[in-house]
Amino acid sequence: MNQANKALFIIFGGTGDLAQRKLYPSLYRLYTKGFLKENFAVIGTARREWSDAHYQEVVRDSIHSLKVSDEHALEFSSHFYYQAHNVKDTEHYNTLKKLADQLDGKYQIDGNRIFYLSMSPTFFGTITKHLKSQNLVTENGFNRVIIEKPFGTDYESSKALNDEILEAFESDELYRIDHYLGKEMVQNILTFRFANPMIESVWNNHFISNMQITLSEELGVEERAEYYDKSGALRDMIQNHIMQIFSLLTMDAPKSLSTNEVRKQKMLVLSALKELTTETVQSDFVRGQYTRSLDNKLCGYREEEKVADDSTTETYVAGKLELNNERWNGVPVYIRTGKKLAKKEAQINIVFKQIESSLFSKGDTAPNILTIYLGPSEGFSITLNEKKIGLGMDTDIMQFDHLRTESMIQESPEAYEKLLLDCLNGDRTHFAHWEEVAASWKFVDKIRTTWDASTNKLATYPAGTAGPEAANNLLEKNGHKWIWNPDQH
Ligand code: NAD
């Protein structure tokens, strides 16, 4: 039997896309599994004037494909209340407090509050300041704030934002979302590495030649052009998701899986990152932008609505990361991400060294490759060498796949569901800690400032392809190549 939680969620941005697509369905899943029962309520706030009845209808629409029955959906949505609210208006917080206190009593929530900031980051500081000053923070229960990305646009702005939020909340009350950390297969990295001595014993520079992290997107900027054009792939994907995956992949074993021990190891590895110079940024990082597709069906980035026709924002980044520590000296970690590529896919490839052998020459065998499929496919595969069937001792490649079925993936909890439950449980392991955020901003800022000062042109790639050719050259000069490519099927 799952433990039911007591909590009042106050969602800022309750009419928004994220709330409807992710938050309400995730809350519903927690409700159907018994993690939320009678003692919870949700206040959705946003500028629009909505009635509770309309809001509840929106919530029911958002869970339409998941609902157990109409009655169950009605029961769930009856816990939702709407309050029109302008986050800059102090008086509105007083109205919000009255409703919050009233619902706290009605549902016997014991003062537990989760404030979910699902709106533009420019408002994060204003909201937290008002939550404190207008006494929405309770004395008797827990108070937790979930903050959406992006957390700043560089180190300076993220530090200012962090300091501002810390004036109202304690650092252990902050839950910075990086939804990749809630993904099944990203969480599986630690289990796969540390629960398997066979894997962990070869997880070092004696055996591994290079590692590759790819987050390839098929979609373009969609409705987010205004935000994206100021951000670009470096800030949108590398600073957070890729740097988090990188640290899980390269960190040493933590003493336990507790929040502090995992963080300690992530920080050690982030601080071992080889410092970038203007020269290494120029030689080891590639930025690209998509142009019109070869078949003319997909428009180029500069043709997208709300994107300037001379925009130099990168929609693609590839790069080489190196670590100065005993385990990883000499092992490049190649990273890449891009929009409007040929295929949506997130995967990690670990390429093992080919050991010199008197029995087989290098040309006769292939490197062992381990692939971790993060999504939409989920699972693992490994390639090994075997004897080819027949006369003689020729070799062949064999591949072991362990891929989750469509129904297993459908049934496994969604990232936001897990992260909301973690927050209810007070577990911050799968959230981004300030020190991690700061370290990765500092790393990424060096790339940004070098690019901004450079007169080098952006590489381009036609929409629907594998990305710019320069990303292949990046590996070829070290004698490596990308194991997976977006245009291979
Ligand atoms: P959205 O534009 O769809 O929603 C923004 C919400 O903020 C709306 O409810 C709007 O009414 C409200 N709002 C705006 N100004 C307001 C004001 N002055 N007072 C009160 N309410 C106001 O945005 P979204 O896509 O839902 O994103 C929300 C947050 O989540 C952003 O930080 C975004 O970067 C982040 N995020 C979204 C996604 C996604 O898939 N949508 C993914 C990752 C991160």
From TrEMBL:
Occurrences of domain Glucose-6-phosphate dehydrogenase NAD-binding (ranges): 10-188
Catalytic activity: D-glucose 6-phosphate + NADP(+) = 6-phospho-D-glucono-1,5-lactone + NADPH + H(+)
EC number from the UniProt entry: 1.1.1.49
PROSITE patterns tied to this protein: G6P_DEHYDROGENASE (PS00069)
Annotated Glucose-6-phosphate dehydrogenase C-terminal domain residues: 190-482
GO BP of this protein: glucose metabolic process; pentose-phosphate shunt, oxidative branch
GO CC, one annotated term: cytosol
Entry keyword set: Carbohydrate metabolism, Glucose metabolism, NADP, Oxidoreductase
Residue numbers binding substrate: 179, 183, 217, 236, 339, 344
InterPro entries: G6P_DH (IPR001282), G6P_DH_AS (IPR019796), G6P_DH_C (IPR022675), G6P_DH_NAD-bd (IPR022674), NAD(P)-bd_dom_sf (IPR036291)
Gene3D superfamilies per the UniProt record, alphabetical: Dihydrodipicolinate Reductase, domain 2, NAD(P)-binding Rossmann-like Domain
Function: Catalyzes the oxidation of glucose 6-phosphate to 6-phosphogluconolactone.
Family: Belongs to the glucose-6-phosphate dehydrogenase family.
This protein's name: Glucose-6-phosphate 1-dehydrogenase
Gene source species: Marinilactibacillus piezotolerans
